[in-house]
Write a structure and sequence with these properties.
The protein has one domain (24-111). The chain is built from 3 helices and no strands. It has helices at 2-33, 43-69, 80-111.
């Protein structure tokens, strides 16, 4: 009974930690999500925040890919549903990284007044 509670606590703490990381990433990316409301005076701070958010997303993406390709328990079979959800989760994270990098590029282009007339 105590052993099952310990296992449940470990799984819950891991899920809670991942959820906390996602909340931090959401807070870091909030200015980029609402890009139209960004004040151009604070662009440099937003770019730094976004760079930290991208780094956290890359860490989460690497962890997911590692979990997908190299499962911890090799002797036990991994269910098809778990594999499908991990693959979809990794695709969503990759899409989020691409979207946020494109938003960072847009913000950088808006912040630098570059005249592209030839």
């Amino acid at each position: 009974m105590a052993n099952s509670r310990l296992i449940l606590f470990k799984k819950g703490s891991k899920a809670g930690f991942i959820l906390l990381l996602w909340l931090i990433v959401a807070w870091l990316f909030y200015p980029l999500i609402t890009l139209n409301a960004v004040e151009m005076a604070n662009v440099k701070a937003y770019l730094y925040r976004s760079a930290v958010g991208i780094a956290l997303m890359l860490i989460l993406f690497g962890k997911t890919i590692f979990d997908l390709l190299f499962p911890q328990s090799v002797s036990e079979g991994r269910s098809l549903l778990n594999t499908v959800f991990l693959a979809l989760y990794s695709l969503v994270i990759a899409g989020g990284i691409i979207f946020m990098v494109s938003r960072m590029i847009i913000l950088y282009i808006r912040s630098v007044d570059v005249d592209l007339s030839f």
